[in-house]
Amino acid sequence: MTCTVISTGEELTYIYQNEEEQPVSGIKKRLFELLQVLIAEGCDSFYVNCDLVIPLWTAEMILAMRKLNPIKLHIVMPYEEQAANWSEYHRDRYFAVHEAADSVEMVQAQHSDECAENALRIMIDKSDVLIICGQMDDNSEILSYAKQQGVRVGSDSLMHNP
């Protein structure tokens, strides 16, 4: 079973906080537990866009969990320079994850208004399950698209009860 994990971006407020302290450590713990449940339910391939915070953490966790589980990590980059304006610390983590991933696919070379949505659609097309971390409007295009594709959708508001 294949799973895509996306984020609504609510966690971006924590981007420069210490990841070992609350509330970030609690969010990461809940994310790890969620991934464990997905693996126990049969998810063996995971797609992320490797954006900052939850998608990047997810990729790092999948790589760590791969040591004990036969799982794969696939990255779909919205555009080539996705991490160009990130801090050196985050860029280093981004490139380390890309190097260790089972596959990396780039949607397009240049940034555009639709590149992120196109990346999400590609990941959804390859998935059986879509996990949305954060609150997403029931009328969102991505949610509607996943349902149209017959992809099971789950959500977890990791930020609200770390």
In words, what does this structure look like?
With 162 residues, the chain is α/β, with parallel strands linked by helices. It has a domain of 112 residues: Rossmann fold (3-Layer(aba) Sandwich). It is 38% helix and 21% strand. The chain has a six-stranded parallel beta sheet, sandwiched between helices. Helix 5 links the parallel strand 5 and strand 6. Helix 1 crosses helix 2 and helix 2 crosses helix 3. It is globular and about 40 Å long. The mean pLDDT is 92.
Jot down its keywords.
162 residues; 6 strands; single chain; six-stranded parallel β-sheet; Rossmann fold; alpha/beta
In percent, how helical is the residue content?
A: 25-40%
CATH topology of one domain: Rossmann fold
Strand residue percentage: 15-25%
Mean pLDDT: 92
Tell the overall outline: globular
CATH class of one domain: Alpha Beta
Order of helices and strands: EHEHEHEHEHE
The CATH architecture category of one domain equals: 3-Layer(aba) Sandwich
Number of helices, counting only DSSP H or I runs of 4 residues or more = 5
Let me know the number of strands.
6
Q: Segments where pLDDT lies below 50 for 5+ residues?
A: none
Distance between the termini: 27 Å
The structure class reads: alpha/beta
Give, in spatial order, the strands making up the sheet with the most strands: 4-3-2-1-5-6
Please state the CA-atom Rg, rounded to the nearest Å: 15 Å
Largest sheet: 6 strands, parallel
